[in-house]
Design goal:
The chain is of the alpha/beta class. The protein contains 6 helices and 7 strands, in the order βββαβαβαβαβαα. The longest helix is centred in the first third of the chain and has 13 residues. The site of D-ribose has 8 residues, from helix 3.
Length: about 160
């Protein structure tokens, strides 16, 4: 059984909580497609918010907004965003109240983003991580759970910052 930071029961298995909103800019398009296949193999439902090509240059904040809003509206349980570095989508998504987007560059940082920060959006850099690295990052993010406890208070303090 899993609980959110307020102690509310949210699911009985990892699969049942998982609907992922995914998005990228042109720089992250190919990796987004690969991640979608990985999620499918893990039995996780995925909604793709674009972009739909690596050829046309687009603006990463547009896709960060679509994915971030899908998560905070409850349309998706979590989000995954890819751009060249993962930095731009992370900065943009974190402007949306309720989003806790974390840029992960290793399985360890992805795991900690879930277990300590309850990150509801994961961002990765297509130009700064290898395909194998991204695979490990996604796997760690999906299979890790928020630890709650002392971390819940800290996550709540993040939420309070949005109200100032
Ligand atoms: C696009 O060229 C690139 O700037 C973008 O994908 C991202 O890396 C921004 O943070």
């Amino acid at each position: 059984m899993y609980y959110d930071f307020l102690g509310r029961q949210i699911a009985s298995s990892k699969q049942s909580i998982m609907k992922i909103a995914i998005g990228s800019d042109h720089a992250g398009y190919e990796e987004k497609e690969t991640i979608k296949k990985q999620l499918e193999q893990m039995g996780i439902e995925c909604e793709d918010f674009g972009t739909d090509s690596a050829r046309n240059s687009v603006d990463y904040p547009d896709f960060a907004a679509l994915v971030g809003n899908a998560v905070t509206s409850g349309k998706a349980d979590r989000g995954i965003l890819v751009c060249g570095t993962g930095i731009g989508v992370s900065i943009a998504a974190n402007k949306i109240p309720g989003v806790r987007a974390a840029l992960a560059w290793s399985a360890e940082t992805a795991k900690l983003a879930r277990s300590h920060n309850d990150a509801n959006v994961l961002t990765v850099g297509a130009r700064t991580s290898t395909p194998e690295n991204i695979k490990e990052i996604i796997n760690a993010y999906i299979t890790s759970q928020f630890e709650g406890g002392r971390h819940a208070l800290r996550v709540e303090k993040i939420a309070q910052l949005e109200k100032k």
